[in-house]
Design a protein that fits this description.
The protein is mainly α. It has two domains: 39 residues; 216 residues, MetI-like fold. It contains eleven helices and no strands.
Length: 272
């Protein structure tokens, strides 16, 4: 009679340890990469000292100075508010138009030249015209940023709508799904990859345009501060504001965007 094999306690202990090391490896590699970058930065600034290329410690001192005075949190918060407002506006309008054009061929043919036109107008032109037509106001700044992103969202969601599987729509029709239930259970899950792609590219594009908007026509925000320290030729302060803003955007990517993406694609893993 054969005796069933039992796993030893060491086997159960080794599995979590292996999983822990596997999950920690990407974090350690990222930390090592950033440490290498800072070391190269320090060595370059030491070998070729220049006021236009300050060492990391000088940037850290500028960062702490601006944090202590409260200037950096104040201007950073204003910029993040503009990024969030423009992002929501662009995603809502662009997604609605993209889904509509993907579902209606005639409307898509009619509005296609408009989409191509706005895709190719430089962001700087839209910003300048918005300030000329609507004044140096908050609405003009946020609207100009959103207009620059809306065409990209339209194109992405239009292609996603065209790629929808008609069998799911037929199933929803058979079971007499209402508009909200059809949107939530049929349309939204299929468009999730396209919404994710539009969101990620949207954040990376919008925060860059927001800085240009602030530099040209606002009296606060990270872009305004960068312009101010550019006139003072304070490169350390410019890098401090830039790195602080980039750091916040990376945290948003890691803490907000990626968890939402994993949560929205959980149904695909269950289906598989």
């Amino acid at each position: 009679m054969s005796v069933p094999l039992r796993s030893s306690p060491t086997t159960h202990q080794a599995a979590p340890d292996h999983a822990l090391r596997r999950n920690a490896a990407p974090v350690l590699i990222t930390i090592a990469s950033f440490a290498t970058l800072i070391l190269l930065w320090h060595l370059t600034a030491t070998i070729w000292p220049s006021r236009s290329f300050p060492p990391p410690l000088a940037v850290l001192e500028a960062f702490l100075r601006e944090m202590t005075s409260g200037e950096l949190p104040h201007h950073l918060g204003i910029t993040l508010w503009r990024v969030a407002a423009a992002f929501v506006l662009a995603m809502v309008i662009g997604s609605a138009l993209g889904i509509y054009l993907g579902s209606h061929r005639q409307a898509d043919r009619f509005l296609q030249p408009w989409v191509i036109l706005f895709l190719n107008i430089p962001a700087l032109v839209i910003i300048v015209l918005a300030y000329i037509w609507f004044g140096l106001s908050e609405a003009a700044a946020i609207g100009a940023v959103a207009v620059n992103k809306i065409p990209n969202v339209i194109v992405t969601l239009r292609e996603g709508t065209r790629a929808l599987d008609p069998r799911y729509s037929d199933m929803a029709r058979v079971y007499r799904f209402g508009p909200w239930k059809r949107f939530r259970n049929v349309l939204l899950p299929q468009l999730q990859p396209y919404l994710t792609a539009a969101s990620r590219s949207g954040i990376s594009l919008i925060w860059k345009i927001v800085l240009v908007v602030e530099l040209l026509g606002r009296s606060n925000g990270v872009g305004f501060q960068i312009n101010l320290y550019f006139q003072l030729f304070d490169v350390a302060a410019i890098l401090a504001y830039t790195l602080a803003f980039v750091g916040v955007m990376l945290l948003i990517e890691l803490i907000v965007v990626q968890p939402l993406e994993h949560a929205s694609t959980r149904w695909r893993q269950r289906a598989a």
